[in-house]
Amino acid sequence: MTRPTVSDAQAWQPDSLREAAVSWQAAATDIHADIEIAVQGVAATRKVWIGSAAEAARAEVRNVGLASDALSRAMVLAAVAAGDAANQITIARATVLDLVSAAESEGFVVADEGAVSVHDAPTSLLIALSGGDSAVAHDLLTMRADDLTRQIVDALEGLGAADADAAHDIEEAFATPHVRPTATTPAGATLPEDLVTGWPVMSQDRIAAQIAALTPEQREGLIAAFPRQVGNTDGVPWEMRIAANRTNIAQAVLDESDPYRGVFYRTLLGEVDDPAGGGRRVDRQIVAFDPARSSLVELNGDLATAKSVAVLVPGMNTTIEGSAANTATARRFVAADSDVAVLTYLGGPFPRGNLVSGVVDAASPRYALDMAPRLVAFSEDVDRTVDARAAGSEAHVPVTYIGHSYGGSILGTAEAMGLTADQTMYVAAAGAGVGVDDPREWHNRNPGVVRYSMTAPGDLIQAVQGIPRGPHGADPDEMTGVIHLATGHYDDGRLMAGFDAHSDVLNSPSDSWRNILAVITGDRERIQVAG
Predict the structure, then answer these.
(1) How many whole angstroms separate alpha carbon 432 and alpha carbon 484?
(2) How confident is the model at residue 279 (pLDDT cuts 50, 70, 90)?
(3) Helices 406-417 and 366-389: angle between axes, nearest 10 degrees
(4) Is the Cβ–Cβ distance between 444 and 418 less than 8 Å?
(5) What pLDDT was estimated at residue 183?
(6) Strand, helix or coil at 24?
(7) In CA terms, which of 14, 102, 285, 474 is 20 to 30 Å from 191?
């Protein structure tokens, strides 16, 4: 990478990238819509146009439709990359120009390559501050010029890096707009179509074994031909699921009629600041994405280096398009400890509504009963994936499941159905799970599972926790064998209590937040048990 110059930075027009992003997105939408109309029109002739020529024509139009979708998805990905690049280049460019302006305002000369030199003699004030010694004053100016040089050169390198990253991401988006051929298999082997068709009734281990037997080219072909199945099937390696879900999300952008949801889907395709720090920009890691099932699972952090993993199951009113707050919660834990990886788990629709209708909907156990089996299956996939990443290491990577509010009922119901976890934590939980009135009704596949709970005093959830014959089971705060954690105080000294504490225990800088992090990381000395 060639470092840009100051004049390059001054001439740069990042708004042109924004214009390209808008243009590519509009073109993607138009191409998809126009070709879809044509494909549907030809498909509609099935009853009135028959014969081999008709079938051949319809097949060819279907291929055109597939090619159109692939091109449109590539343009969506390129539009997202261009928009993100425009923002990053704007920030990097502004840093360069601000430093140059600051240097020049102080009387220095800035060369085009970024070197800063002393131009004016020291002022009388600087000489006076230097004890009346003009030589010392000149040395101070030289030191300042050297410091500004380092800052400007670093900023120019940052601008160059942003530009290179933009070029890479846009090139990657446009690299494979064509339809890839269906994955091939050795003679006598199961065809990819048959392989995918069998997944719903197969064990995860068998699915994983099938994938392991494929070549890299066959895996890529499988992703291209069956992105929905690859992206949402437990047992498929996560790197394949993440790659497939970029295709699924780009297709959802094209298919979505609601502008708000379409905009949110595009954010799932963009880069974000690495929550683990280091100043890097990273792609979002979407392990499951299926709007038809209200499913979105995202990995935050680096699973390859994680020493502990958490899975966050949120509560009432959680939706895919409204899940940004849950993602922010996960990233805060990763930002606090880069050895932590956190998954946000939306495995289906959650109860929704206001303080009146929402309470009625949240009283229904059906959401927990529907989602719990999927969480059980996913926990098996998490267990296998985490163990595989930790293979060869003596250190065990513990996995903690956190159920917040209604998510506590989902978690408890999943434990009753055979969840696999090292630790479970019920945070302001609606209950211990549908039909769970005694710890013996939990059937975690890990016999050594450790369970925790916390609810702040005055939290309104207490009105429904453990009510006799309640829909969500017993109060986990009162169950034998569950370690009840202290919620403590906010960092400003206020007691963690009352209505706001329901969400604040999980999100606000506080004793409770650090208590949850200590459980995730296994920092026993910092875990505070309720008195």
Answers:
(1) 13
(2) confident
(3) 70
(4) yes
(5) 45
(6) helix
(7) 285
